[in-house]
Amino acid sequence: MLFLLWLLPSALAAQPSAPDPISAPLRALDFGQLNFLHTTDTHGWLAGHLQEPSYSADWGDYVSFATRMREKAEAQGQDLLVIDTGDRVEGNGLYDSSEPKGIYLSDIFRHQHIDLLTSGNHELYKQNTSEAELLITVPNFRGNYLASNIDIIHPTTKELVPLAPRFKKFTTKKQGIRIVAFGFLFDFNGNYNNTVVQRVSSTIKEDWFQEAIRDKEVDLFLVIGHVPVHSPEYRAIFKEIRAIRWDTPIQFFGGHQHVRDYAQYDSKAFGLASGRFMETVGFMSIDGLASKASHQSAVGPVFKRRYIDNNLLSYYHHTGLDQESFPTEEGLNVSRLIAKARSDLHLDHVHGCAPHDLWMSRAKYPATDNIYTWLETQVLGDLRDESRGDTPKIAIVNTGAMRFDIFKGPFTQDSTFIVSPFTSTFRYVKDVPYEKAQLIVDVLNEQPQVSSTDESSLTTLAPLEQLAYPEDVIVQKWPSASSTNEQIPMSGPDLVPGYTTKDDLGTDGDDTIHSPISFYRVPNCIGPLISANASETPKTVDLVYLDFIEGYVILAAKFAGLDVDIAKESDAYMPHMSLTNLILEWVKKNWKC
Ligand SMILES: Nc1ccn([C@@H]2O[C@H](COP(=O)(O)O)[C@@H](O)[C@H]2O)c(=O)n1
Ligand SMILES: [Zn+2]
Ligand SMILES: [Zn+2]
After folding, report:
1. pTM for this structure?
2. ipTM of model
């Protein structure tokens, strides 16, 4: 059933600066015996989106939402489980701007009752981040954090131990559904050397996994992971379970690619991916499952999915509550914690004012409103090492280092980390023939774009549905009446631009009906020539690059025939200057309010 919401609340949000959501037509949620809420790739956005009304609910609102949804399910004799599939860190001032990073975030995050969670790759890039998982997040969610393929060197004992239990068996409260759950990370190899990520294909051959899938007293296998739902890793897990249990339903939850996505593996196995940055709360329901009580499945099972826009109007609508009856004490407290943390961290402090929007993929590259064009024509001009003076350079930045658009208006302390949170610094090799340096950029851009989850191929990890569309211009299509089981109104309210998701089941997954947005491809990396004498082609240049991509630059240099041992002969360029700080300094200097 489709509903139109006309509520226009005033001053609903706990944070004074959070924008009110805009009314929009909404599709309903169909509850089942077993229901799920799912977040992934939140990357510290627990304050929600302060500049985008569609995604303006904060983690406190989500705490209230999960409580109200659980109350609703349980009142109907059903169950609700809350899932998070990692990349909780890096990407927002709430995480990145504290010293040390993350001290506010984990205290806010733990207030959500999460039934199952797992680690993303971002929890493992650095030693202190993975140790914080082991020492803080795993204990905060004791018994619910799963790590089927991650080990860590314990900081005190120095022993290699599982980051968390490999799997878990439990029975749901209301329906008595017997579940065996696993928690995976994709085949990631960019982790710091204090952790070990075992390949999924070898993990599923281990005795503990083989025994777990031979358990006959199981009504549902639940695989959560920081793994794209369309990936070789999930396909392998599906095949391994199916080979032993030909008929048992399997539900996957995934993430990492920052997209809304739904995969059908067979008639009883499905996977949901729930976007990024607290824009989306995924909802799944399964009906017709066998359970301890029934011992047999009636009809079905029937799986249903929804991508919920993270705002209060969606939350009120799906719970049937309003601004008086919706919030819980716990939820309001969490919103207050977020507001306090933002204030302690001065996240609203304004460093400058952007004169217009700058888009990562909503504008063509190159173009004046494209963020990478801005980076190469403006910001990278300030990348200058004193010892190299005006020596011409080619400066290579992976486009994935930029994480979010810049909106016209205040560029705050929060924006600094939202736009690019990473602490990677620059390195360089001197006296590289100009043609070879150009060739290196070309080789890097010929790498397959986001074709695998393995970071050995340089990825930009394109947002939204870009991955699904090979064309140059990627238009999110308006759902046609024939491709959806609901009647979409073609007149009436002006629709707000936003997600119009196309997945394995069609075009009716989004809860909110939006008008489509166009997306354009971006290269893997940019590599502008920066020279005081723009009209002259230099013979040699400094080849400057972000240290995060050194491995790829070394490979590309080999392809390009550059006879230099980059690992040995490179040096720090503008030591200690991260891309984050380079952008911030540029903004302070050039964007007066
Ligand atoms: N120091 C870093 C770390 C990561 N990146 C970029 O992020 C991508 C992974 O992000 P997900 O949220 O999708 O896991 C990675 O492929 C890089 O593009 C970076 O630039 N610097
Ligand atoms: Zn992510
Ligand atoms: Zn990831």
Report:
1. 0.92
2. 0.99
